[in-house]
Design brief:
single chain; alpha/beta; seven-stranded antiparallel beta sheet; 19 helices; 25 strands
């Protein structure tokens, strides 16, 4: 959940590390710090955001540096708990993403042996363990250290008078950028885009020794070769491009993202080879879970296949009804719970398919097959275009299941997406911006659409929003309806249209203000709601997309009206790489 960056080469390291950390702030922004080696180890670290408080870091000199932007797991966000952490001598510095599960036991033993700890973090035990094994060779010391660590880690370490960065990873992402006479390392590729188009993705258990001209990777103490991949994303892909927030930029990119992903899936010859079986289990978290639920409704309606959807975070704690194929969905390809679910499925001899946005991510190496989204880098913590790209992949799978039934529908869906982007939604925002709680309701495939809309509102506006299947409100939540409890009701043409109109009237009878989302020209629905938002009268598959975009825009404009930090909502990070 944190972001780490390292640099070794011919330039001053600190400015490059600082800029890289700014690109990773979506992974964590409680605190930050940088360490450089220039005959000795120098460290500057602070609580707060590097984008706002990072000026002091420029005093650091040296052509070897490591840095960190933190999302707190152990210890409150403050200067002391910020990374990098050092050993007792101050000659070794470490940054770390992940969680060391057995840190308390290691710390107790180290304290008994005289080590002095400064922070409350789990990471500091790594620095002290390296100190225990350090006899002039940092690679050996790190190799011995990781043998004692349980949990997840991506580690960068430097030592006084050692001309290398030592990197190690297990269950946490780490990618190396290969430049001309320089090497960079980071939690994902966004800090690398300005400097190189060549990347090496480390695998679990790898330890790498980095110099300006060389990358030596070891696995189980054996020297191994890792391929150099070409980075297809550009720096412009990761910039705001004139938009006020990354989230708004990424919302506007969705028509193109959907179109490109659908075309990519159509051209993927492996899809037909997969032979999706009659029974499928999908595992995912958060927004990806909602995309999977939409796929379930559509697949069961149009293909008659049975699809179950499970939270990846719960998948390994009970025995779910694993069927013929397990599909795992993760935008980053590094979601810890989803990776664990893949391993659980493989242990049961189930074929596995990954849906991800990141070439070379952990999930691509774990699953039997991978289908890629064409979303490009998503910087805002709240997922928008990756959600749409996941739906594009799922709909491509659905189209394959249905022998091409939806080819023409999917080919023009981006046009409907473009039409709803211009919605300002002032009247709807006026209803919800002062609410402390609200509901989103829908039926059928629009129930998971409602869940996703509520999640977006919670994430960035901090309004307590809950999504419900519309008929379930009468089983308890009706007690919460009042004039201060707005409801967003999705009411589009379907077999449930009539009962949905009745549900809206019931909510209105309790005094709740209702924002209705229906199709253009629906005067009946418009007549019974307070604010009506029309979407194009298109196929249900497309309406699931257009309504989702409207709900993203509603959350965005509400959060903007409330002056929230839209791209970096409190307490959240982009990629959940720890349990």
């Amino acid at each position: 959940m944190c972001g780490i960056v390292g640099y070794i080469g011919w330039r001053e390291a600190a400015p490059i590390v600082i800029e890289g950390l700014k690109r990773l702030e979506y992974r964590g922004y409680d605190s930050f710090g940088v360490a450089t080696e220039n005959g000795h180890i120098s460290v500057v670290k602070r609580s707060g955001r590097i984008s706002e408080n990072g000026a002091d870091l420029t005093i650091l000199t040296g052509q070897i540096g490591i840095g960190h932007t933190r999302w707190a797991t152990h210890g409150v966000p403050n200067d002391t708990n910020a990374h990098p952490h050092t050993d007792c001598t101050g000659r070794i510095a470490v940054v770390h993403n992940g969680i060391i599960e057995n840190y308390a036991l290691i710390k107790r033993k180290l304290v008994e042996r005289g080590h002095r700890f400064k922070s409350e973090t789990d990471t500091e035990v790594i620095a002290h363990l390296i100190e225990e094994y350090y006899e002039g060779d940092l690679l050996t010391a790190v190799s011995e250290t990781v043998r004692h660590l349980e949990g997840s880690y991506a580690i960068l370490s430097i030592a006084e008078d050692d001309p290398r960065i030592i990197a190690a990873r297990k269950n946490s992402p780490l990618v190396l950028g290969v430049g001309d006479g320089e090497v960079l390392c980071a939690s994902d590729i966004t800090p690398l885009l300005e400097h190189t188009e060549r990347a090496v993705y480390l695998e679990d258990g790898d330890i790498a020794a980095l110099t300006p001209s060389r990358i030596d990777v070891y696995h189980d103490s054996v020297h191994v070769e890792r391929s150099i991949d070409h980075i297809t994303w550009s720096l412009d892909d990761a910039r705001k491009g004139g938009f006020e927030h990354y989230m708004l930029k990424e919302i506007y990119e969705q028509p193109q993202v959907f179109f490109e992903t659908v075309k990519s899936i159509e051209k993927d010859s492996r899809l037909a080879m997969l032979r999706i079986p009659s029974d499928v289990t999908v595992v995912a978290c958060g927004t990806s879970y909602h995309a999977a639920l939409i796929f379930r409704y559509l697949a069961e309606e149009y293909s008659r296949k049975r699809v179950s959807v499970e939270f990846a975070s719960e998948f390994k704690y009970y025995t779910p009804p694993i069927r013929d194929m397990v599909i795992a969905v993760s935008q980053s390809g590094e979601t810890a719970d989803t990776l664990a679910a893949i391993e659980r499925a493989k242990a049961r001899n189930c074929p596995t398919l990954a849906i991800t946005n990141v070439l070379g991510s952990s999930i691509t190496r774990s699953a039997d097959w991978t289908l890629f989204m064409c979303a490009g880098p998503e910087i805002s913590v709240a997922a928008t275009k990756s959600f749409t790209a996941q739906l594009a992949v799922f709909m491509g799978i659905l189209n394959e299941m249905c022998d091409g039934k939806f080819t023409e529908i999917l080919a023009r869906a981006h046009c409907s997406l473009e039409r709803v982007l211009s919605y300002e939604l002032e009247d709807a925002v006026a209803i919800v911006k002062n609410a402390s709680e609200m509901f989103y309701v829908g039926r059928g495939v629009f129930y998971p659409v409602a869940l996703e809309g509520a999640l977006k509102m919670k994430e960035i506006s901090y309004i307590h929003a809950e999504g419900y299947a519309a008929g379930e409100l009468k089983h308890g939540p009706f007690a919460l309806l009042s004039e201060e409890t707005p409801v967003v009701a999705i009411c589009t043409p379907s077999p449930t249209y009539g009962v949905m109109l009745s549900n809206i009237k019931e909510m209105k009878a309790r005094g709740a203000p209702v924002i209705g989302i229906g199709v253009e020209g629906d005067t009946e629905a418009q007549s019974i709601v307070d604010v009506f938002v029309p979407v194009p009268d298109d196929h249900q598959v497309v309406q699931a997309l257009t309504v989702s975009v409207v709900l993203q825009l509603l959350a965005y404009h509400t959060a903007r009206a409330l002056n929230r930090d839209i791209d970096k909502p409190r307490n959240l990070a982009k990629s959940v790489t720890v349990e």
